[in-house]
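Long-time lurker, first post. I've been practising inverse folding by hand and with some scripts of my own, and I keep getting stuck on stretches where the structure tokens seem ambiguous. Below is the full token string for one chain I'm working on. Before anyone asks, I'm not after the true native sequence, just a reasonable design that respects the backbone. If someone could post their per-position residues I'd love to compare against what I wrote down in my notebook.
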């Protein structure tokens, strides 16, 4: 982020049609460079820096030029006029400028923390879209495997039906199961396209851009310390830091409001030059001091508003801290439960489901199993494998949800 308008973030051009290989880290890097929501948030930081510049500026002096003349005893502007010039400067008292600078400084820091929080939240969205694509690809691979298997079974049994070896109802059952797997293929393709569109929009890529994702949806066991996670979240999460800075800004605003009880002083000085026909004092110097009398307005309303703003900011901070604590706890519990489920599948259930289907299929081909046995084994195998893929995706999503809740990456 730059220090002024000349360093404002530039809008990157949208990439033309191309093919991209993206790991998860590369997708996050591209997102940080090109996402428009982040660009908007970054402009908010630059705006806050502009307010900070304004806060430290002194009031401008006021220059006054006028004429003086006497119209008694035959005098007129032409024979007794004087040219008068004066400069006045407002001098702020009671530390108003310092409090204003303090408030604007907290405002800039709060905007920067808000930008970091936008990165935190949108990064979760990017990771979620990335893994939804991987989920759809895993579902597609499973659906295509089952479809191809039953395509072969359908071809063989069509021949067997024509030769009178099986009943028509068995052939119909196989055909219906094949259509069911084919519909799953189409559904997985649609889900994948939707997830790709979401990711392209987040990365600000053209719809024609083809993406090849290289980070697989794999299981990596994490066993985080919940106590440390809570501590880190309370200290490091950018939205918590933003709320603390907003509270500090409201306190600075209150000090500024109280300082306005003390009136500011206006100091002025001038010089008058008379014409050649004037009195014997052709030059006059003037000094003046202006001080408002705080008889009625001592900023009572402004102080009350500032006090309420401090109380509201304190309540908002407490609310955010409570939300963060609960978010971390829920995300941690979800992670532990989803981890147990994935590990239960990895304990041998997947291999059992695949081998059972293969055994029943071979038995059916030899006449040792019925078509109902084959269909039941196929549905059971499909359900177990789909549930595993779902469990793996939910585990990965719970990992990134916990990272989002904590505000930083979790390392095992």
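-- Answer (accepted) --
I ran through it position by position. Result:
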């Amino acid at each position: 982020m730059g220090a002024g308008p000349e360093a404002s973030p530039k809008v990157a051009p949208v990439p033309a049609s191309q093919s991209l290989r993206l790991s998860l880290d590369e997708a996050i890097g591209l997102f940080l460079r090109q996402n428009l929501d982040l660009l908007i948030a970054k402009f908010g930081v630059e705006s806050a820096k502009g307010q900070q510049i304004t806060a430290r500026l002194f009031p401008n002096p006021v220059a006054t030029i006028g004429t003086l003349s006497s119209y008694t005893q035959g005098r007129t502007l032409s024979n007794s006029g004087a040219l008068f010039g004066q400069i006045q400067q407002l001098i702020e008292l009671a530390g108003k400028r310092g409090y204003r600078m303090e408030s604007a400084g907290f405002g800039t820091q709060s905007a920067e923390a808000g930008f970091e929080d936008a990165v935190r939240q949108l990064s979760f969205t990017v990771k979620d879209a990335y893994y939804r694509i991987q989920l759809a690809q895993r579902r597609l691979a499973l659906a295509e495997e089952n479809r191809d298997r039953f395509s072969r079974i359908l071809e063989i049994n069509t021949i067997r039906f024509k030769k009178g070896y099986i009943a028509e109802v068995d052939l119909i059952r196989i055909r219906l199961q094949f259509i069911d797997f084919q519909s799953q293929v189409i559904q997985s393709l649609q889900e994948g396209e939707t997830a790709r569109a979401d990711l392209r929009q987040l990365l600000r890529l053209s719809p024609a851009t083809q993406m090849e994702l290289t980070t697989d949806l794999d299981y990596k066991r994490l066993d985080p310390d919940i106590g440390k996670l809570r501590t880190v979240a309370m200290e490091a999460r950018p939205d918590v830091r933003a709320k603390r800075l907003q509270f500090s800004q409201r306190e600075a605003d209150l000090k500024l409001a109280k300082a306005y009880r003390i009136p500011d002083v206006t100091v002025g000085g001038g010089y008058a030059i008379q014409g050649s026909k004037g009195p014997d004092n052709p030059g006059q110097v003037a000094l003046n001091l202006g001080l408002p009398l705080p008889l009625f307005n001592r900023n009572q309303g402004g102080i009350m508003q500032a006090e309420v703003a401090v109380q509201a900011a304190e309540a908002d901070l407490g609310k955010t801290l409570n939300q963060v604590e609960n978010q971390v706890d829920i995300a941690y519990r979800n992670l532990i439960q989803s981890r147990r489920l994935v590990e239960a599948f990895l304990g041998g259930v997947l291999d059992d489901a695949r081998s059972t289907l293969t055994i029943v299929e071979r038995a059916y081909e030899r006449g040792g199993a019925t078509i109902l046995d084959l269909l039941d084994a196929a549905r059971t195998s499909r359900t177990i494998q789909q549930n595993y893929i779902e469990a793996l995706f939910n585990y990965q999503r719970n990992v990134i949800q916990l990272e989002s809740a904590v505000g930083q990456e979790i390392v095992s």
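A couple of notes from the structure itself: The chain has two domains: 15-57+95-261+301-406, 64-91+264-297. Residues 1-16 have pLDDT under 50 and may be disordered. Happy to go over any region you disagree with.
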